[in-house]
Design a protein that fits this description.
Layout: H1 6-23, E1 27-34, E2 37-45, E3 58-59, H2 63-77, H3 102-106, H4 129-134, H5 153-167, H6 171-183, E4 200-202, E5 209-211, E6 227-228, H7 230-241, H8 250-257, E7 261-262, E8 270-272, E9 277-281, E10 284-293, E11 296-303, E12 308-314, H9 323-335, H10 350-353, E13 357-361, E14 364-371, E15 375-380, E16 388-392, E17 398-400, E18 409-415, E19 418-424, E20 427-429
Antiparallel strand pairs: 1-2, 1-12, 3-6, 4-5, 7-8, 8-9, 9-10, 10-11, 11-12, 13-14, 14-15, 15-16, 16-17, 17-18, 18-19, 19-20
Helix pairs in contact: 1-9, 2-5, 2-6
Amino acid sequence: MTGVGEGTSRALLRRLATEQAGARIPSVVAAVVRGGEAVWFGGRGYVDGVEPTPDTQYRIGSITKSLVAVVVMRLRDEGLLNLLDPIAKHLPGLPAAGEVTIAQLLSHSGGLTAEPPTEWWERTPGVPADELMSGMGGDTMRHRPGRRFHYSNLGFGLLGELVARHRDMPWEQAVRAEVLEPLGMFSTTPRPRAPHAHGYAVHPWADVLLPEPEHDAGAMAPAGQMWSTASDLARFAAFVAGDVGGVLEPCTLAEMREPAVVEDGDAWTSGYGLGLQLTRERGRRLAGHTGSMPGFLATVWADPADSTGVLFLANTTTGVSRALVMDLLSILDEHEPRLPEPWVPAPTDTDLLELTGPWYWGPAAYVLRVLPGSGLSLTPVAGAGRASRFMPDGRGAWIGLDGYYAGETLRVVRGAHGVTHLDINTFVFTRQPYDAGAPIPGGVDPSGWR
């Protein structure tokens, strides 16, 4: 599994080796993805006396949440639920938190307590879903729903039960049938299979290990049960970057990657979408998830902007630095920067060419360009202002994809002598600043410019 030069491979492996030795990690594997394929793999340390391979299993913890979220979004796309539905609509009889919406559970903005009303669920055998839900009392809510980001493992326990009831099968079977198998992730399982790493805690002041327990988490399993390999997580990184493999529509995946909440307010370096963690670091905007369970740490990030991904899996309770994955990406960028795709002409309808060029919203100058696929881009000439892209709606108009006009309709208005103006949700764009010949709301002073 290599698609980088010898020098790049050596630099990547050295960074991984430095992390393993310096942080005293029993074993760690990592991979870098580019263009939908794993281009580098590295492993350090030992699992049962041998070096780990791309097929060695590790527990991935909360990366499980992203797999569950994909199935929830498939249910939404099938019309079986609405993200604005309260969870009690699908889990009737829920004694508390029933008003929290599915979208809020997916984005950790529902205000639920972080942990379930059981013993420390990551280190003890789990309970059935009915028992978990019946134990949810008045202290289940910690914040007003929608007010803020508050990570909730309990919320994903509920989402796993939602999947199970809609699919009439255990949540993990639905994940396997609808996500893992279509993506070719055949080594991702709810319980370990050989060869797999064993979870350890490393003593803070001595070079000795303590085995960590591992149990079936029962109803909380959707929050962190899965085990996987570097090979499988590389495929998932490619998926998050945009290689959907028929599992989701590209627009649905893009919706999951949109920030729903941010963790650090003004800075906005970390946040959460719909089942995906988000981060902005070193000029990249990444989507993916981290994972932590007793004895294991994992992370997978993907950058849709250049179809790049990175991941690591380790069998230690603590110790792997956040910088590891970003350093691996930086090494790849430094040694083998990605070349831009060559520009090629794109056929465009003559009717669309007629729309290109300068337009004015009052006195503010904009330029309209045609995008590949017959889309339109409307951007302010000065650089600051309301920029949006639009795609045809199939009925002669365009729908905004992003920016201020996301979801709004752009209509081309024609008169006897051709196009007179653009109408974007009552805003009128004309070929001249405040064109007196166009229906400018409020009219134009008859004396004109002076």
